[in-house]
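Input record (one chain):
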Amino acid sequence: MHFNIEVDDGNQIVGYIVPDAASKIASLRITDGERDLIVMPCNQDRPILVTAGRHETGRCGFVINQSIIPDLPGQNSLEIYDQETNLLIYRRRAPSEVVQKKVLRVETHLFPLWGLDDALEPHFQYFHKGIERHGRETTIQFFELHNSESLYLSGRLLFKQFESYVSGVFNCIAMIHEPYTELAERLLTLKHVRKFSKTMLGERDTMILTPAIEFAEALELDESKLHRAFSSMPKDVIANLANPLTRQFSAIGFDEMVTRRSVPAALRTLASCAVIGLREKQEFFLQQVSELLGTPVGSLSPAPTFAKTAELAVILGKIPEAAVLIERDLEVYDHVRSAVESALSDHQVQ
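The corresponding structure, as predicted from the sequence alone:
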């Protein structure tokens, strides 16, 4: 899906929505932030979309004016959604009420830290979490919402695939997990993922991670059985679980092999971020995010802790095959931990 707002001068809003299906005409659901005001189809033709082969009729543009919403100039909390997908297209916020920055939180956890996203949502004009659940074109469109300087996105993306859209434009933030603990949390998440909401894993990720899901569902979480399971782990499961942190910040494709050379590449990418934190030192991370955005640190939600995750991480630390599985992530983590601890020490001195 392609969408954008080209004009909002108070008296009218002009934009477009190009649905994935070239024969469909998108409808807009417009709210005042609390209740629906109107549902209307796109009402303007864009012939260039027909010429480009993007749509059959070109009826993808829209103009919202006072003939449609009489008190439009006074609607300071107006929101526009695509009716079919419920995707936020645009919302109004007074510039003085929002953070005038573009922020991407790179999600490094399989169990997403959406509590932090939700805490930051009121501080931005445009907001979308879990952007990895959408197709590539829609994800790129999020980065190209040039009409808003107050923009917050989060997602578990392969960073290199979108680096050209992010670099120099977005303030990237990320909090990373100790690799054994993240592996434990991933296994427990995958073991129970079919019971969770479908929004946790999009259809594409569910399909890609099917071997790991089936492996995790069959796991019995005692040490001897985990040893046997890891010693006979199928290759497709290894591909799903191996070095996710290093892959996320160094690879272009999901099937790209992670090697020793991937470690410095991942570290260079991480070094370009505005804020990098450790989950076990998340108070410092939240403080840095607060300083970056100018938001109260007390309003930011810390990541949850799970006793079973910690217990499983201890067991995984005794399994040689687990160490091999996350070997590169352990290297990346050690470098990041040293940098964060050094920054924390300097911060405390100040």
